[in-house]
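In this supplementary section we document a worked example of the pipeline. Step one takes a protein sequence of length 146 as its only input; no multiple sequence alignment statistics are reported here. Step two produces a three-dimensional model, which step three serialises into C-alpha cells for compact storage. The input and output of this example are shown verbatim.
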Amino acid sequence: MKTEVTVLVVVIVLVLAVAGYFIFQPKIDSNVPLGEENETNVTVEQIHGFPPPGNETPLVIEPKTHNIIVSGFEFTQSEILIKVGDTVIWTNMDFSSHTVTSDSGEELDSEYLGKGGTYSHTFTKVGEYSYYCVPHPYMKGKVIVE
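The serialised model returned by step three reads:
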C-alpha cells in the first residue's frame, strides 16, 4: 500500500510539473517582427536568446574541449564535428606509442605519444582535417570544423 501511494504521489508531481511548464511558458506571436513586443511584452529576441534591441553586444559562444581517446589501436571517435575555436585533446591509453599527424599539410603534428601522453590542438579555421598515426597508418580520424 505504501509503495502504491508513493508511486501515485510521484505521478501527480510529474503531471503538475509538465502542466506548469506549458502553462507558464511565455507565449510569442510568430507574426510579430523581430524587435517588437507581443501581448505578453516578451520580445522574440528574448525568447530565442538574441540581445535586446539597442544592445550591440554580440552573443559569445564559449569554445569547447573535445576528448579523443587512443585505445585498442584506434581513435575512439574516428570523426568528430566541432566549432571554430574548439580544442581537441587526444590521449593515448595504449602501451604502444601513437601520433596524430595530418594527412596533408602540417595542421596536426604530434610527437610520439606514450601511454598517458596527450596532444591538443585548437582549430581556428573551418574545414576538414584528416589525420592518421605514423607507426600505424591504418589508424585514421577526421575533425570537421564548422
